[in-house]
Design a protein that fits this description.
- With about 425 residues, this protein is of the alpha/beta class.
- It has 2 domains: about 5-35 and about 310-425, Alpha-Beta Complex (Aspartate Aminotransferase, domain 1); about 40-280, Aspartate Aminotransferase, domain 2, CATH 3.40.640.10.
- It has 14 helices and 15 strands.
- It has a 7-stranded mixed beta sheet, sandwiched between helices.
- A hairpin with a 2-residue loop joins strand 1 and strand 2 (about 20-25).
- The chain starts with a helix and ends with a helix.
- The model has no long low-confidence stretch (mean pLDDT about 95).
Length: about 425
Amino acid sequence: MNYHLETIRSKFPALSIEDSGRKRIYFDNPAGTQVPIEVADAMKKCMIESNANIQGGFETSNRVDKILDEFHQSMADFLNARYKEEIIFGQNMTTLTLHISRSIGRLFKEGDEIILSRMDHDANISPWLLLAEDIGLKVKWLTFDKETFEFDLNQLDELFSEKTRIICVGGASNLIGTINDIKTICKKAKNEKILTYIDAVQLAPHVAIDVQEIDCDFLVCSSYKFFGPHQGILWGRKEIMQTLQPYKVRPATSELPGSFETGTQSHEGMAGTTAAVDYFAWIGKEFAGQFQKERAFDRQRTKYVHAALDYLFEYEKLLTLYLIEGLSNLKKIKIQGITQSDAMDRRLPTVSFSVDGVHPEVIAKELGKNNIFVWSGHSYAIEVVKNLGLYENGGVIRTGPVHYNSIEEIKEFLKILESILTTKQ
């Protein structure tokens, strides 16, 4: 494909940094991505030119009000939400979920049932387990097949009952990389009048998200996973959000979105998040013309953002396949995820693996000495590594190239990894 890698890489100052003459290879992206210069500039500009609180009626405060408005609209465009008031800004996905789960929980009563997923990050599990403990809910589990690394959604027909109130599931796994069929999950749930809460933290950097098409009730993501600052974003269906009781201080507004945005927010984080969305829009406009869907969206920025993500994902699938094939050629490595060459559209470039007889942390540290950044352990996906029988063995080594990474970097990673394995086995 005609991919403009060098132009894209030039946007990211961190990619040119060297340590003791050795370039950095960022494969730690599932935990957080690097940022384009526009994001850093937007945050700096906000801190210098708009360092005030909201609704003051004076110049710096007026500028902050504009930043807030632009942020809510940018994320509405990113997710193709109907209303910008449906966008809630917060510290991170975990904090937002802990917060909103308390308001959602007021709709439930003792004996009601909730469904959680064995594939999810704990941020979409523990808040609901705590809620279940507080009000006496019954927890049911949607499990994944350890051979296919995917859900059998027919299982939902057995899990759903007249007492089921909500299902909480990830759009994609942060550990094994599986992209889940959340559209079908939400359709099945809606037919039974069951609420849906989607963790799209891992999905958002790779796959275009349309909350109207998915037809979920809540969806959360984090801008630092899609090349922005360390912030979280919650989308909630307006007609449902308006029925919830927000946990807030008394002087705070009772109107959306402010009623759920507790305290003074990170205005610079909002500015940076808007810049990250605009980065995608730039790619969509400049490079992804063939992926633009005319008349598919009401707003032009949504068209460009979604075209960009489709364009970038095509490139990422090439990276994923090359990485999987390279790992498959190394001895004693087991890839914990989908590996079929014709299934790259059903998984992220997040590729985790285990090495027979070698602790994951040992591999990760040796790679780190070579300035190749990866993670090891459970990555907060405790249910996943337990289900795979890897919890007691230290979890996995997790790699995660994104659209600014290259085949050459994967080649270097595989070369260094092979040399490490030679010495450790």
